[in-house]
Amino acid sequence: MSDPTVAITAYWDAAAPTFDDEPDHGLRRADTRAAWARVLSSWVSAGPSGVLDVLDVLDVGCGTGSLSLLLAEAGHRVTGVDLAPRMVERAEAKLAAAGRSGRFLVGDAAVPPTGSERYDVLLSRHLLWTLPDPDAALRAWVARLRPGGRLVLVEGRWREAGQSGAPYVAGAASLPWYGGVTAADLAAAVRPLVADLRIEPLSGDPELWGGPVSDERYALIARI
Ligand SMILES: C[S@@+](CC[C@H](N)C(=O)[O-])C[C@H]1O[C@@H](n2cnc3c(N)ncnc32)[C@H](O)[C@@H]1O
Is the separation of the CB atoms in 33 and 27 below 8 Å? Predict the structure, then answer.
């Protein structure tokens, strides 16, 4: 299989200037933004004491940093990693404009360039479908978590590979989860790596997406 990483980087660099135009990307609408802040706070939450824990969160495939910003606003320490330098620039600018701190690195989410650092939460939204080896990435992510840490994977199954529509990149059809991954398939991949997991369906919450959706969308939350 040819390595599509170069083409994937170029695709997302080109997409960066307009990426936030989608309601669930830019979170410009107050209701969409509030909906994501609500679900994130339930997944990346305070401990049993109810006192806010400041958690170390690694947001892989962070894009323009919209979720990173919500996490920073909630008081967490956020590191974002993205393959596309133009995405990382936008994430840095977004947090700076909001007066929030966060660290953003250009790199491959499958091998985050964060050395021996360990995190309380690894967040990934809408990334697994474009990874050449998602199973290896999941193993690498679990290894970056502290004991008791959480994986928060926001994913979906949007379309069949090869379905008509704008082409993504050459060779994309060979990506294992091109078109998305069902909750059942992702749970099967994650379950051997973690202590427990749960799936939260998200298709029924139009505020998250800027309108109703008919495809499968969900979050998988796992504890190691
Ligand atoms: C659909 S966007 C999602 C962005 C962000 N997580 C969000 O939900 O708004 C996919 C992102 O993954 C990034 N990406 C794709 N492959 C990657 C890889 N191997 N490592 C890191 N980032 C990657 C792209 O540059 C893009 O920013």
Answer: yes
Rounded distance from Cα 198 to ligand 1 centre (Å): 23
Question: Is the beta carbon of 32 within 6 A of some atom in ligand 1?
Answer: no
Ligand 1 centroid distance, CA of 129 (Å): 10
The pLDDT tens digits for 159-187 are: 765 555 677 898 888 899 999 999 999 99
Longest alpha-carbon distance in the chain: 50
Q: In which order are the strands placed within the sheet that holds 77-82?
A: 103-106, 77-82, 56-60, 119-125, 145-157, 216-223, 196-201
Assess whether the C-beta atom of 33 lies below 6 angstroms from ligand 1. no
Ligand 1 in contact with 87 (CB < 6 A)? yes
What's the CATH fold of domain 5-43+52-223? Answer: Rossmann fold (3.40.50)
Q: How far apart are CA 33 and CA 115, in angstroms?
A: 32
pLDDT in tens, 61-102: 999 999 999 999 999 999 999 999 999 999 999 999 999 999
Which atom of ligand 1 is least distant from the CA of 124?
6
